[in-house]
Amino acid sequence: MTQLLQYTVTGLAVGMIYALIALGFALIWKSSRVANLALGQLVLISSWFTYSMLVQVRLPVWAGMIMTILFAIFLGWMIERLTLRPLIGQPILSLIAVTLGIGYFLEGVVTVVWPVSVAKLPPLFPQEPVTIGTAVISQEYLWATGISLVLFGLLSLFFKYHKMGIAMRATADDQLAVQACAVPITSIFSMSWIFACVVAAIGGILISSIGGITNGLIETGFKSFSVVILGGLDSFIGCMVAGPIIGLCENVGAGYLTPILGPGIKDIIPFVIIVIVMLIKPYGLFGEERIERI
Amino acid sequence: MSLPCGIRNYTYNTDMAIIRTRTQWALFILFLLFLYTMPLYLPRFGLDVMNLMGITIISIVGLNILVGYCGQLSIGHAGFMAVGAYTTAILGSSLGLPFLVSLILSGFSAGLVGLLFGMPSLRVKGFYLAITTIAAQFIIIWIINHWTDVTHGSMGISVAPASIGSFQFDSEASQFYLIISVAGLSILFATNLARSRIGRAFIAVRDNDLAAEVMGINVFSYKLLAFFLGCFFAGIAGSLFAQWRGNITSEDFTFGQSILYIGILIIGGLGTAIGPILGVVFIRLLEQFVMFLSPMIEQTFSGLPSGFATGLSPLVFGLAMIIFLVFEPRGLAHRWHLFKASYRMWPFSY
C-alpha cells in the first residue's frame, strides 16, 4: 500500500512534466499541422544550454533561466524560418521527415558542443523531501507539477482570450479563411514554434533538474508522444489529462511488473500504450475526429 | 519513358524492356563487369564499405516500396531489420538450418512483424502511423535486449558466415559477391513490382487513398501488402548483415539508424527505382568522407573538445537531409533524370 501511494505520487508528478513537453507538440500541431518529431532533441539541447549557462558561464539561476528562454525563442524562430517555411504546402511526409532531420542535426550539435554526454544541473529547488501520507517525494517533483499547471493555465488563457491565440486557433481551423482576413499566417507559424521551444526548454530544465542531463532525454521526448496520442493531438486538456495517466501507468506498471518481466519495462510501457491506443481509439481521448470526404 | 531520336518500339516486349538501346546494354554490361571485378583491385576496407552499401540498398529498396510507392511512413525500419538479423542468428545457431532457408525465413518473420505493426494503418495515416512505427522500433529493441534466453541480450549473438552447400562465404570478397547479387535481385524485383498492378495500386493509395478505394482497390490489404514487402526486404537485409558481421547486438539497429534510412530514401528520391541506390551511395560515401576528415580537423584545430568527431556525422547528415528537403525534395533521382534528359536531347536544349 505504501508502495502504491509512492508510485502514484511519483507517477503523477513525472506525468505532469511529460504533459508539459507534450503541450509543445500540441501547440505546433494546432496551428500549423506539423508533427514535431524533434521534441526530445529540443528538450536535450535546451537542457545543455542551461547547463552551460549555469555551470560553465556561472550565471545566477534567474539570469540562466532568462538566457535559456531567449535561446529557446531564437531556436524556435530559426527552425521555423529556415526549414519549415520553405516547406509550406508540401506533403505531410516531407514535414515529418524534416523534423526528423532537425532532430538528428540538433543531436549532432549537442555531441559536438557538449561531448561529456552526462551532466548534472545545480539544484534549482529546495532539496528537503516532502511526505504525503506515507509516500516521500522530493520537492523538485512538486515544483515541476506546479510550474506545469501554471504554464498550462497561462497557455489556455492565451489561446482563449488573446488576439494572437485566437488567430492561432483560427489558423488551425482554416488557413485560407485566415489569410483572407489579413492575418499573417507565417508569423503565426513562427510564433507557435517559439512557444513550443520555450515550453520544451522549461520542461527540459524541470526534468533535468530531477534526473540530470543524459541522452535519455531524447527518449523522454518520445514518451511524450504517447501523451499526445492518448490525449488527442490537438487538445491541450487532452495533454494535461493524458500526461498523468501515462506517468501513472509507467510508474505503477514498472513497480509491479519489474519483478515479473525484468528491469527496463518502465521504458517500454508508453510505447505499448501508443500501439494499443492506435488500434482502439486512434484519435485519442479528446482529439477531434476528422471525417474525410471526397 | 522517352527514347533517343529515331528509335521506335515495335513490340510490347521492347516497349516494356528496362534496358532498351544498344548504348544502354553496353553501359550496363560494362557496369556489371566493373562491379564484379571490384574485389580484384579494391582494398579490404573498400570492400567493407561496398558490402555495407549493398546491405543498405536492400533495406532501402524495401523502405522505398513502403514509403516511396505506398506512402506509408515507417520510422522503425532498423527495428524490422533487427527482426530479420536475429531470426537468422537464432535459426542458424540453434536449429542449424541452411543459409538460404534462414534467409527466406528471416524475410518472412520480419514481414510478419511488419504486418502486425502495419495493422493500425487500417484507421490512421500520416503522423499517427509514423508514431506507431517509432513504437515498433522501441518495442522490438526492448524485446531483443530483455529476452536474454534467446537473444543473449546486450552480449550479442554470434552468427556463422553464410554457406551454400559446402561453399563458405567466409572472405570479404565472397561476401561481396553474395551481397551484391542479392541486392541486384532486390532492385530488379522492386523495379518490376512498381510497374505491375500491385505497384500501380500502391501509387494510387499514396496519391489519394479515398479515390483509390472508390476505384476498387482494397486499400487496407494493399497497405498491409506494402508493409509486408517493405519489412520482408528489411528482414533479408538484416539477415545478410548478421552473417556478414558475425556478431550482432541491438546496438546495430538503433532508432538513429531508422532515421538514417528515411533520410537516405529522401536524399535519393522517393518512389523511383534509382533513388535508393543513389541515396545509399551518397550517404555512405559522405560518412566515409566525414570519418576521413574528422581526424584532420581535430589536428588542425587543437582546441576542439574530444567528442567532436562522433557528433560530426549526425550533424552533417541531419543538415544534408534538411537541405535536400528544402531545395530538392525529389532527391538525387530527379537530378539524374534531368541529366539523362539533357544527354538524350544533346545538342538541343529541348
Report what the structure shows:
The complex is a heterodimer of chains A (294) and B (350). Chain A has 294 residues and is mostly helical. Chain A contains 11 helices and 2 strands; from the N terminus they run H-H-H-H-E-E-H-H-H-H-H-H-H. Chain A has helices at 2-32, 39-56, 61-84, 92-113, 139-161, 163-173, 175-180, 185-211, 216-231, 236-261, 265-280; strands at residues 129-132, 135-138. Chain A has a two-stranded antiparallel sheet with strand order 1-2. The N and C termini of chain A lie far apart (55 Å). The model of chain A has no long low-confidence stretch (mean pLDDT 85). Chain B is mostly helical. Chain B is built from 16 helices and 4 strands. Chain B has a two-stranded antiparallel sheet with strand order 1-4. A two-stranded antiparallel ribbon of chain B has the order 2-3. The two termini of chain B are 15 Å apart. The mean pLDDT of chain B is 87. Chains A and B meet through helix 4, helix 9 and helix 11 of A and helix 7, helix 11, helix 13 and helix 15 of B.
Q: What helical percentage do the residues of chain A reach?
A: over 70%
| Integer count of domains of chain A | 1
Rg of chain B (CA only): 21 Å
Work out the count of structural domains of chain B. 1
Low-pLDDT sequence parts of chain A: none
Numbering strands along the chain, what is their spatial order in the largest sheet of chain A?
1-2
Topology diagram in text:
The complex is a heterodimer of chains A (294) and B (350).
Chain A: H1 2-32, H2 39-56, H3 61-84, H4 92-113, E1 129-132, E2 135-138, H5 139-161, H6 163-173, H7 175-180, H8 185-211, H9 216-231, H10 236-261, H11 265-280
Antiparallel strand pairs in A: 1-2
Chain B: H1 12-16, H2 22-36, H3 38-41, H4 44-69, H5 77-95, H6 99-118, H7 127-146, H8 148-151, E1 157-158, E2 163-164, E3 167-168, H9 172-195, H10 197-207, H11 209-214, H12 219-245, E4 247-248, H13 255-268, H14 275-300, H15 308-327, H16 331-345
Antiparallel strand pairs in B: 1-4, 2-3
Helix pairs in contact in B: 4-9, 4-12, 4-13, 4-14, 5-6, 5-7, 5-12, 6-12, 9-10, 10-12, 13-14, 13-15, 14-15
